[in-house]
Design goal:
Blueprint lengths: L5 H8 L6 E3 L2 E3 L9 H16 L1 H4 E4 L4 E4 L8 H18 L6 H21 L3 H15 L3 E4 L22 E5 L3 E12 L6 E4 L14 E6 L5 E5 L7 H4 L1 H5 L8 E12 L3 E4 L5 H15 L2 H19 L6 H26 L2 E2 L5 E2 L2 H11 L2 H13 L9 H5 L4 H7 L8 H15 L4 H10 L4 H11 L2 H12 L4 H12 L1
Parallel strand pairs: 1-10, 5-8
Antiparallel strand pairs: 1-2, 3-4, 6-7, 7-11, 8-9, 9-12, 10-11, 13-14
Helix pairs in contact: 1-2, 4-10, 4-11, 5-6, 5-9, 9-12, 10-11, 10-13, 10-16, 11-12, 11-13, 12-18, 13-16, 16-17
This protein binds iron/sulfur cluster (SF4) and fe (iii) ion (FE).
Length: 493
């Protein structure tokens, strides 16, 4: 029976037997844990959106001949890739945080084309296995967590030269039935809220490192998997601070360390095993897909711009020209991110396998913008909100009869503005710029889908500097040096 709604999705998570640690304790029931639950709510929105706005949240899959959640769809046109971005912006607006499902979507779409090309070269059967897996997850409407980033150890040496071979996920045993893998994946978005994980290698490998070239799917509760939950700024506000202090009590993101201790994977779920030359191709396609997925942050930016405008209204300065200027600057930065991401999707090309792959240059420019512009947008939001973002007393003080009336008296601004509403919007700005959801809006924007230098490397590879020099030379009427040398040599001989 497929999952049909956010509520059914939340119920489906209860059937799993996960080993999750948070704050030094084994968490028996992550689904109802107050700190974890907001991140589950964010994923649940991806199900409800598919029901509420099916043209955005779902798509027709030729693989099973049915409508499927767009996060599980293998793109069949450039428009499908564009619609992913539109859906991501919408979900960012609805949740104000990371809704965690894009990594799986991007893994499915990049592996679809890469498994096809491996089979073409080696006559393997990865693509067929992969399609069987996609059909299954589409039929059941499951959440797929994509897991790429290894802990990486000493960054100056390759996986096989690390002090500990487990610093990169690798195959430790192969049998007729399958493979056994060991290692870890770090900073894994939404892994505890998923049904299946897809592991992928993280970087280019050298000959002799074939055991590290492994991609496969594993149920989240496979024996040998342990999750250690990432601590987020102000994460316990929801427990000890109440609804207002949490800022966004409904939604949050999630990252965890996945430890993989000799996990057995049957061959039917193995999609790459040893083909090192396809590792950079997979990494390039996945990261291109995922880097333009970061238009999610423009939806979050929409919320923050709205919050900044509201706080200015509450303070009585919403119509002042310098306030409007700052809001325009925030919108300009936000739309610049969106423009590059969606342009990358519009420029998608058809792969040999038949699905569509976004433009790599613009995807990397999009993500590079995301490493910078949200910080400036957040700075401007704090500028408009004022110092009270970091000095506001707690909800408990507001509820205390001894102090509540004092807060209402001294945090009043003008007629028709409830001081409690002012506190709520200030807490939301705190949440998004230094609190729990700043994890996703700022630092995860910096490092997620690769740190800034990773994008600069791709941009430098794709920027065609020699072609650009030729363009300049032509207009300046500078003759090509090689041509001049040739002519001079011809004269001598
Ligand atoms: Fe999706 Fe954005 Fe979260 Fe990545 S950071 S999973 S792109 S919502
Ligand atoms: Fe991410």
């Amino acid at each position: 029976m497929p999952i049909r709604s956010g509520a059914e999705y939340i119920e489906s998570l209860r059937k799993r037997k996960l080993k999750v640690y948070y704050l030094g304790q084994l968490i028996e029931n992550p689904v109802d844990h107050p700190v974890i639950r907001p991140s589950i709510n964010a994923v649940a929105e991806t199900y409800d959106l598919a029901n509420r706005e099916p043209e955005l949240g779902s798509a027709h899959s030729s693989l099973i001949g049915k409508k499927v959640n767009r996060f599980l769809h293998i793109t069949e046109s450039a428009e499908d890739v564009v619609l992913q971005n539109k859906m991501q912006r919408r979900l960012g607006q609805l949740t104000g945080t990371c809704f965690q499902r894009c990594v799986g979507m991007d893994a499915l779409n990049s592996l679809y084309s890469v498994t096809y090309e491996i089979d073409e070269k080696y006559k393997t059967e990865y693509h067929k296995r992969f399609i069987d897996f996609v059909r299954y997850v589409q039929e059941e409407n499951l959440v797929i967590g994509g897991a790429m980033t290894d802990p990486k150890g000493d960054r100056s040496v390759s996986p096989s030269k690390q002090i500990d071979p487990d610093l990169f996920l690798h195959v430790v045993k192969k049998t007729d039935e399958g493979i056994v893998i060991r290692g870890a994946k770090a900073h894994q978005t939404g892994c505890i809220n998923s049904h299946w994980l897809i592991f992928m290698p993280t970087q280019r490998l050298e000959p002799g490192e074939e055991d590290y070239a492994v991609s496969c799917a594993v149920p989240v509760d496979a024996p040998g998997l342990t999750y250690i939950y990432g601590r987020q700024a102000c994460d316990t506000r929801i427990v000890d601070g109440g609804e207002i202090d949490a800022g966004n009590s409904m939604y949050s993101g999630q990252e965890a360390l996945i430890v993989v201790e000799d996990v057995f994977v049957p061959w039917k779920y193995v999609f790459m095993c040893g083909e090192i030359e396809f590792v950079p191709i997979l990494v390039d396609r996945f990261t291109a897909y995922h880097r333009r997925s970061y238009v999610c942050k423009t939806g979050v930016g929409d919320v923050l711009i709205g919050a900044a405008a509201l706080v200015a209204d509450y303070n009585g300065v919403g119509d002042k020209s310098h306030i409007k200027e700052k809001l325009v600057e925030m919108a300009h930065l936000n739309e610049t991110i969106y423009g590059t991401g969606i342009a990358s999707s519009f420029l998608s090309y058809k792969t040999k396998a038949g699905n569509w792959q976004c433009d790599s240059m613009l995807a990397n420019v999009c993500k590079h913008n995301v490493t910078r512009f949200p910080y400036e947008i957040a700075r401007l939001a704090q500028d408009l909100a004022g110092g009270i973002v970091v000095t506001l007393p707690s909800e408990k003080d507001l509820r205390n009869p001894e102090t509540g009336h004092l807060l209402r008296k001294f945090f009043a601004t003008k007629e028709n503005v409830d001081p409690e509403d002012r506190m709520r919007i200030i807490r939301l700005i705190e949440n998004m710029t230094i609190g729990r959801n700043a994890v996703g809006y700022l630092t995860e924007s910096l490092h997620g889908a690769g740190s800034p230098q990773a994008q600069r490397i791709v941009i430098s590879r794709l920027m065609q500097i020699e072609e650009k020099k030729k363009l300049a030379k032509r207009l300046a009427k500078i003759k090509d040096l090689e041509e001049q040398v040739k002519k001079a040599t011809a004269k001598i001989t």
